[in-house]
Write a structure and sequence with these properties.
The complex is a heterotrimer of chains A (647), B (251) and C (229). Chain A has 647 residues and is α+β, with helices and mostly antiparallel strands. Chain A is built from 18 helices and 19 strands. Chain A has a five-stranded parallel sheet. Chain A has a five-stranded antiparallel sheet with strand order 11-15-14-12-13. Chain A is globular. Classes of the chains: A alpha+beta (647), B alpha+beta (251), C mainly alpha (229).
Chain lengths: 647, 251, 229
């Protein structure tokens, strides 16, 4: 059996990162210029890494599929970014941030990685402020904070409801500066189509110019993947239309392990699905749960009346409302972590208490907040979100409660990386949401921005040098080498094959079918049977895809259907992986809820004895099931216990 | 209440930057009014594909009004008739049953058409690269609270920073000027203490790049501000002018 | 030189020349009002501004301002049309917040220039220019002879003709539109603006333009009505 080395440094938890930095190998400035690094993706992780590596003197090639680095989907993060600054004097510390994150992740993350994340969190805020990120401030001129689910301190820094945007623009401006100096070369509207491995090391990529349709080869000494998550396997998610898991799957097919694929986060506060023409789901910020109260009717007949449209929310008196989160989790109430809130909503809807015509929605009510604070205060806090809600649903949330339902939002799983963020292929690194590292089985709000920037600004630029230090003698590779030629040939053949199918179904129509399978059988509640069924159906869908897809137009030119088809092929692979992983993990934890494993009260039931490991999946060929490799999560510093948000 | 409507989509089709474009009209039947405009475009594309035709190419990504990717000029307005919203945030209930909706790409020399409704906005990246940053390296900064920034200054910087770089200002401007975009970035950074050391240099460099890339001269029509999906104010243009003129007079 | 090479520089030239011209017409309007109260007083001013060296220098400077303002307007319009690209929108729609004048400054400017030519023909040609040419009397046709320094008589003569009155009022109307935008726009270009002042300057623009144009129009109408009595 393959042995896994996560390369965690020796020493006490708080000293591991300092020890690492003190003893790692570095590359001297003259040699940095001779080393090329490919960074794929320009989100928080990709842009910050490319900028930082460029500043250090490396020669960076940075790719993105959008027309500008600033469009990466990090831009859509609303709420904020955590840091252990303790500016509010409420008892926060690096340890507490670390502990909350480990606990929030349901004890399925690596202690050393998470501690390092908490440790560098403060430097991120300093860095972003220096870049001119306009964080919210108090009248005295100091930084303001807000609180988020799963924490009992206020440690979230924010820039209105657009924190992700502002942080990304900060990283983008740092990146722009490096493009100006010439240390970073930008390739926009380019999509990575394969990883090139030479003598066991990642040495380049094959990418398609999305404007001209040309397939091009790029060589480098190391490749960094920062391409985000794979939530769009569900078709409907809060991800952007272009978000995809393809780069990760290409690395997986080339031998990189894929870790914990079944850990997908379902965000509790999204606008419910309204029809089969819908293209994406819109998130309403988690911050709404600070003041909104979530409820469904107590009486089934009320719920049925709501579903039939014969009753309105305001017709139901307070005593007939079931504030189920407050009822079940008195200590955290409406501010329980996302996985808990989502499952609770599903439980009520499954029991028939859903409040819209599809029966798949619950109320998020601001009536009480307006009574308590006045409409003006509520408007000042959430006005833009309310306007957005009204534009989409045509209902005024000041007068009728919002309707919300959980939706796929973030994927904790991803490419397996060690402490150095290096994958199981030497020279291949993965950062941000694309890797699996820091959130365990569930991510807390405002932690994704923290992790993306931690990886890009403060972790990878160090750890990559440890790898590159012995690469300084390696000359630049020619892209005429057989490995490049073969990789390009394989891609061209695949594209030709896809085009030749000339079937009857559009890419999107097949993608919707995949989404349906994923949501029904690998969704919020999974069972052994549902997952087995998912595997069978996805395999059948794969067949369907390869016989029925239609790609109109010229595939050697700009072709949006080809782009989608190539991504969908990889989503099918992701779907399979998620189902295999979910089937293997006979426990419920975080974003993975197996209905067989729950307490009598319906809470997730973890099995630490048997499943306290990272499941790493190794590609075993087109027609075989992947091989499972386990990395034991050896908790040494934290006592593993059942998460409790009740008291 | 939600209902279904029929509309005609009159859409600009253009094969490439040099090719001659033309309008094509497509009939859309039974579109639910709670469908977003871009979803209507999706429905149309599905129909085109099922007929073996090539789908209409348009830029879009986040579909929640923040990435700045979507860019359609609908019925004479960038991002359509709604104010303070992007194309992707617009729903069909804004249109009447039987209405003809004209959809064009951004038209400006600075944004050449790539295909159909997709345009090349890389000029904005180039302007950013000319000076849209503070020259600070990773790892160098002091503690975040060591710089005190009055709330009103931070708020005004945030107002400017809300720009999503979509290009609607250029599309709306009869002069094809990118002043609102340039001034929003200059204003954000020049307002903050962190950006002050390079304020004059930034104003000159970004403006020079804008001119070099062939954008027009601002004549203060305020069309950009009226059409901006993030309601960025032209007061930022005044600040850019002030900083630019001040810097030139000092030289 | 940044006043030629940069977009803001070019706009600064427009602003500065524009503001100087506003100052000039303010003075001109004040002078015209004198004609209503006293023909002698008005003629004194006319004499003062006859073929004297300082008046001639000022005239040349004024012509320079107009020329620069006009030339830059042509240049900027040409540049802006290029920046707009070859393909026009099929459908355009003016947002409510956009002033009509602001999008039609060039056309309004052309009307103003045509009006100016008419005005020069009616007055300057017969007055300062006639003095330069050492004419003692100007033949207005139909037996009317007026001395070049008798401005009041020229006014009375010109505005007794209804078509001149109409042309002048059209001209003034165009100038009013031009000024309502031009005034605050000049200040905006020079950077003397912010979120609070933007609305104030706009109001000031409208009030100030109305006062100036009102003054000019009053003289025109006054003398027309007087000619009817």
């Amino acid at each position: 059996m393959t042995k896994i080395d996560s390369k965690i440094p020796e020493g006490a938890l708080a000293e591991k990162w300092s020890n690492y930095k003190a003893h790692q190998k570095l590359v001297n400035p003259a040699n940095k210029r001779r080393l090329d690094i490919i960074v794929v993706g320009t989100g928080l992780a990709g842009a910050s890494a490319a900028a930082s590596l460029g500043e250090m003197g490396f020669n960076v090639l940075n790719f993105c599929i959008q027309d500008s680095p600033r469009r990466a989907h990090s831009i859509a993060a609303q709420g904020g970014i955590n840091a252990a600054k303790n500016y509010q004097n409420d008892g926060d510390s690096v340890y507490r941030l670390f502990y909350d994150t480990i606990k929030g992740g349901d004890y399925r993350a690596r202690e050393a990685n998470v501690y390092r994340l908490a440790e560098v969190s403060n430097a991120i805020i300093d860095q972003c402020v220096a870049q001119g990120v306009p964080f919210a401030r108090d009248y005295g001129g100091t930084l303001d904070n807000r609180s988020f689910g799963g924490a009992q301190v206020s440690r979230t820094f924010y820039a209105r409801g657009q924190t992700g945007q502002q942080l990304l623009l900060g990283a983008y401006s740092a990146l722009s500066r490096q493009v100006h100096t010439g240390s970073v070369k930008l390739y926009t509207r380019y999509e990575m189509l394969d990883l090139v491995v030479i003598e066991g090391r990642a040495r380049g990529i094959i990418a398609r110019n999305l404007v001209t349709g040309q397939i091009e080869r790029f060589a480098a000494h190391a490749v960094v993947i920062g391409t985000g998550g794979y939530g769009n396997a569900y078709f409907l998610s809060t991800n952007a239309m272009g978000s995809n898991g393809s780069a990760a799957i290409q690395c997986y097919r080339k031998g990189a392990y894929f870790a914990n694929p079944c850990f997908a986060q379902i965000h509790p506060t999204c606008i419910p699905v309204h029809g089969d023409k819908q293209s994406k789901l819109t998130l309403m910020s988690e911050s709404l749960r600070n003041d909104g109260r979530i409820w469904v009717p107590k009486k089934l007949e009320d719920a049925q009346a709501l579903q039939a449209g014969t009753k309105k929310a305001n017709d139901i008196p307070d005593e007939d409302r079931d504030f189920y989160l407050e009822r079940r989790y008195p200590a955290f109430g409406n501010l329980v972590p996302r996985d808990v809130a989502s499952r609770a909503a599903k439980e009520r809807c499954d029991a028939g208490f859903g409040v819209n015509n599809t029966g798949l929605a619950v109320f998020l009510d601001f009536k009480y907040a307006i009574e308590r604070l006045g409409e003006d205060v509520v408007r000042a806090r959430y006005g833009n979100l309310f306007d957005m809600y009204e534009e989409i649903t045509d209902e005024n949330p000041y007068h009728t409660p919002m309707m919300i339902f959980p939706a796929i939002h973030y994927t904790m799983g991803g490419i397996w990386v060690d402490y150095e963020l290096q994958t199981s292929i030497p020279g291949l690194f993965a950062i941000g949401e694309a890797n699996f590292s820091d959130h365990g089985a569930n991510r807390l709000g405002a932690s994704a921005l923290m992790q993306g920037l931690a990886d890009g600004y403060f972790v990878l630029p160090y750890t990559i040098q440890n790898y590159l230090s012995d690469q300084i003698q390696v000359p630049r590779f020619s892209t005429e080498r057989p490995e490049f030629v073969e990789a390009e040939k394989a891609i061209k053949e695949k594209i030709a094959k896809l085009k030749a199918i000339d079937g009857k179904h559009s890419v999107d129509s097949i993608h919707k079918k995949l989404g349906h399978i994923m949501w029904e059988y690998v969704g919020m509640g999974r069972t052994k049977e549902s997952l087995q069924r998912a595997i069978k159906e996805i395999q059948a869908l794969k067949e369907d895809f390869w016989t029925n897809v239609r790609i109109p137009g010229d595939v050697t030119d700009l072709n949006i259907e080809l782009e989608k088809a190539l991504r969908l092929e990889d989503f099918i692979e992701v779907g399979l992986l998620m189902a295999y992983d979910g089937l293997n993990r006979n426990e419920s934890c975080g974003g993975h809820f197996r209905e067989e494993y729950q307490t009598p009260e319906g809470e997730a039931l973890r099995d630490d004895e048997h499943y306290s490991y990272v499941s790493c999946w190794k590609y075993a060929g087109e027609s075989s099931a992947p091989e499972l490799i386990k990395e034991d999560l050896n908790y040494q510093f934290v006592k593993v216990q059942t998460r409790n948000y009740k008291s | 209440m939600e209902k279904n409507i029929n509309v005609k989509l009159k859409i600009w089709r253009q094969r490439g930057p040099k090719a001659k474009g033309e309008f094509k009209t497509y009939e859309m039947k039974d579109i639910p009014t709670d469908t977003s405009f871009l979803e209507t475009m999706d429905i149309l594309n599905e129909e085109l594909i099922s007929r073996g035709e090539e789908p209409i190419v348009f830029d879009h990504d986040c579909r929640e009004g923040i990435c700045g990717m979507c860019s359609l000029y609908i019925n004479g307005h960038p991002h359509g008739p709604a104010t303070g919203a992007t194309t992707c945030q617009m729903y069909m209930r804004r249109f009447a049953d039987g209405e003809t909706i004209t959809v064009e790409p951004w038209r400006s020399a600075g944004f050449p058409v790539i295909r159909d409704l997709m345009v090349d906005r890389s000029a904005y990246d180039k302007i950013m690269q000319a000076g849209g940053y503070t020259s600070v390296n990773t790892g160098a900064p002091q503690d975040a609270n060591a710089i005190l920034i009055p709330k009103d200054v931070a708020d005004e910087a945030m107002d400017a920073a809300a720009c999503i770089g979509c290009g609607a200002c250029v599309a709306a401007c009869k002069n094809g000027s990118a002043m609102l975009f340039v001034s929003a970035k200059v204003s954000q950074l020049n307002l903050l203490p962190q950006g002050k050391p390079e304020a004059a240099k930034r104003a000159k460099a970004m403006l020079a790049k804008m001119d070099e890339l062939g954008f027009g001269n601002c004549t203060n029509t305020r069309a950009c501000e009226a059409e901006c999906p993030k309601c960025v104010s032209i007061s930022h243009i005044a600040r850019l002018n002030r900083h630019f003129i001040g810097a030139k007079l000092k030289d | 030189m940044w006043l030629f090479t940069s977009s803001v520089g070019r706009k600064v030239v427009m602003s500065v020349t524009g503001l100087a011209l506003i100052l000039f017409i303010t003075f001109h309007m004040a002078m015209n009002l004198v004609a209503i109260f006293s023909a002698e007083g008005y003629n004194m001013v006319c004499e003062f501004l006859g073929a004297n060296w300082y008046a001639l220098v000022a005239t040349v400077a004024l012509a320079g301002l107009v020329f620069i303002h006009f030339a830059y307007a042509f240049w900027l319009t040409w540049l802006n049309r290029q920046a707009r690209g070859n393909q026009r929108y099929a459908v355009t729609s003016k947002p409510k917040a956009v002033e009509w004048a602001s999008q039609n400054m060039f056309v309004l400017g052309l009307i103003v220039i045509l009006g100016l030519l008419l005005h020069l023909f009616n007055f300057w040609f017969n007055m300062q220019f006639a003095e330069i040419m050492h004419k003692d009397l100007v033949d207005m046709g139909g037996g009317a002879l007026i001395a070049p320094h008798d401005g009041a008589a020229f006014i009375a003569y010109t505005f007794s003709k209804v078509w001149y009155v109409v042309l002048y009022l059209v001209w003034l109307c165009a100038l009013w539109f031009h000024l309502t935008h031009g005034f605050w726009s000049a200040l905006q270009t020079l950077g003397w603006n912010n979120q609070i002042w933007i609305e104030r300057w706009r109001v000031i623009s409208y009030v100030y333009s109305s006062i100036i144009i009102g003054g000019f129009a009053l003289v025109v109408v006054w003398f027309y009505v007087k000619s009817l009595l």
